[in-house]
Write a structure and sequence with these properties.
Strand content: under 5%
Largest sheet: none
Order of helices and strands: HHHHHHHHH
Mean pLDDT: 79
Structural class: mainly alpha
Number of domains: 2
Oligomer: single chain
Helix content: 55-70%
Number of strands: 0
Radius of gyration: 19 Å
Length: 161
């Protein structure tokens, strides 16, 4: 009876973990809707993966572009930090230094040796981080990830965003 309960709960919980990354990079859904942006493709990809169980199978057996050693990540900490500090962060990025910039570097686990490069990269790409005066937290998080990924020295920190 206990095994049946565990299997039933796993069937409900595993798809929600898979959906936590807005599709991820494996499973049939991510392949069918590769490169498409927006709510509809994400929902359809997650639904495809969740209803067919292919992502769970893929992770278990290393198929469908899935890896068995993947790490689940969430941008909620970065987004929560930026929500409460957007104006200060924008000011500090424009100057290339400041407390909110240092705090974000700490949150993203940027090593001391890379802090100056981190600050300079964000300053140099201010318009990528803040494409409009009313940029949303999601815009800034996406821009931050893109800026870090495009910098060879800082690319590894993009996974922490």
């Amino acid at each position: 009876m206990k095994k049946l309960l565990v299997v039933a709960l796993s069937a409900l919980v595993v798809p929600s973990f898979a959906a936590a990354q807005n599709v991820g990079q494996c499973g049939w859904g991510s392949k069918l809707f590769d490169g498409q942006k927006g709510i509809a493709p994400q929902v359809l990809a997650v639904t495809t993966n969740g209803t067919s169980g292919n992502q769970t199978f893929g992770i278990t057996f290393g198929t469908s572009g899935c890896s068995q050693n993947g790490v689940v990540r969430s941008a909620w900490k970065t987004a929560a930090y930026l929500d409460g500090n957007m104006n200060k962060f924008a000011r500090d990025v424009s100057r290339g230094n400041g407390e909110s910039l240092d705090s974000l570097a700490t949150l993203l686990e940027v090593k001391d040796a890379d802090r100056a490069e981190f600050a300079a990269a964000l300053k140099d790409n201010f318009t990528s981080l803040f494409p409009t005066d009313t940029a949303s937290t999601n815009d800034v998080v996406a821009g931050l990830k893109q800026v870090l990924e495009s910098n060879a020295r800082l690319a590894s920190y993009a996974a922490n965003v």
